[in-house]
Amino acid sequence: MAYSHGRDFKNLILDYPQQALEFFAAGESSGMGQGLRITPIRQEQLKSRLGDRFRELDVPLLVEWPDGRREALLFVLEEETDPSRFSIRRLANYCLDLTELLGTDRVVPVVIFLRASERIPRRLVLGGDQYAYLTFNYLSCELAGLDVDLWLESSNLVARLNLPNMSWPTERKLEIYAAAVRGLQTLEPDLDKQVKYLDFIDIYTALDDNEMREYQERYPQETSKMSGLRERWLNEGVEQGREQGIEQGERGLLYRLLARRFGPLDEQAEIRLQEASAADLERWADNILEARTLEEVFTVH
């Protein structure tokens, strides 16, 4: 199974729903105000009705204004890592199913693209020779096309965490990483969530060993805070291993360490981890400290 970017974004949206809507769906969410009630419509509640068409990241969020000044609005968010896999017909069909299921015509489809592409279909029109009978559009957030300088000091945590996914020259990589980490540390007071979303920043920036050393030299204050978070994360991983079974805990911990060090794992690496013995896991955990590549983790003895 390939790395699940959808899982990352689903966590982000569910943890920070209003900030996610203000960032990913700015065209519809401006002026929402405070005091909103945002309710995730859980995947498990919808699966029996929608069947196999349900995709990995479908996060319908029902936004309600308790004072009754506006009718409830349903946002449907989807993440597409590879734009070529996006199907506008599938999304339109899903939105129509939701309108019937929930009895509303107020639906805003939003698609988050990690990469931009000129081949992404922007509009669907169904009709005959004389008339168009169905026209479907959606909001598109193409992260790789966003100017990072417009968001570098944003107070929106979802935007700050996504700085690594925006457009910036290679020589600014450490600056972008530092800005994302500062955003996490200043905008999120919950230490557990800081630990959780440091993973997000690490995975999408993918600093190599040399870059990490340079970062530590250039940004000592952020590094000091981050080191404390890493130590806490490691301790929690060990404790989780005790609760869930030592071997499974080690497997999960090694997976996260490898993703931090080398970026998202491919399908072959994930299969090796799932099929590994306890001895394999222990040996690979030792190798990760000195290995220069992912393959060296698995092969060096």
Give structural notes.
- This protein has two domains: 5-145, no CATH class; 172-299, no CATH class.
- The chain is 52% helix and 13% strand.
- It contains 14 helices and seven strands.
- The chain has helices spanning 5-15, 17-24, 26-29, 43-50, 88-102, 157-161, 173-187, 191-205, 209-218, 220-244, 246-262, 267-275, 278-287, 294-299; strands at 37-40, 59-64, 73-80, 107-113, 123-127, 132-137, 139-142.
- β5 (123-127) and β6 (132-137) form a beta hairpin.
- α10 packs antiparallel against α11 (246-262).
- It is globular, with a radius of gyration of 21 Å.
- Mean pLDDT is 83; it is low at 43-57.
Q: What are the SSEs and their pairings?
A:
Elements: H1 5-15, H2 17-24, H3 26-29, E1 37-40, H4 43-50, E2 59-64, E3 73-80, H5 88-102, E4 107-113, E5 123-127, E6 132-137, E7 139-142, H6 157-161, H7 173-187, H8 191-205, H9 209-218, H10 220-244, H11 246-262, H12 267-275, H13 278-287, H14 294-299
Parallel strand pairs: 3-4, 4-7
Antiparallel strand pairs: 1-2, 2-3, 5-6
Features:
2 domains; two-stranded antiparallel ribbon
Low-confidence stretches: 43-57
Strand order of the largest sheet: 1-2-3-4-7
Number of helical elements: 14
How many discrete structural domains?
2
Averaged pLDDT, please? Answer: 83
Coarse shape: globular
How many strands, what sense, and barrel or not for the largest sheet? 5 strands, mixed
Could you tell me the radius of gyration in angstroms? Answer: 21 Å
Q: Report strand %.
A: 5-15%
Distance between the termini: 27 Å
Order of helices and strands: HHHEHEEHEEEEHHHHHHHHH
Amount of helix:
40-55%
Structural class assignment: alpha/beta
Q: How many DSSP E strands?
A: 7
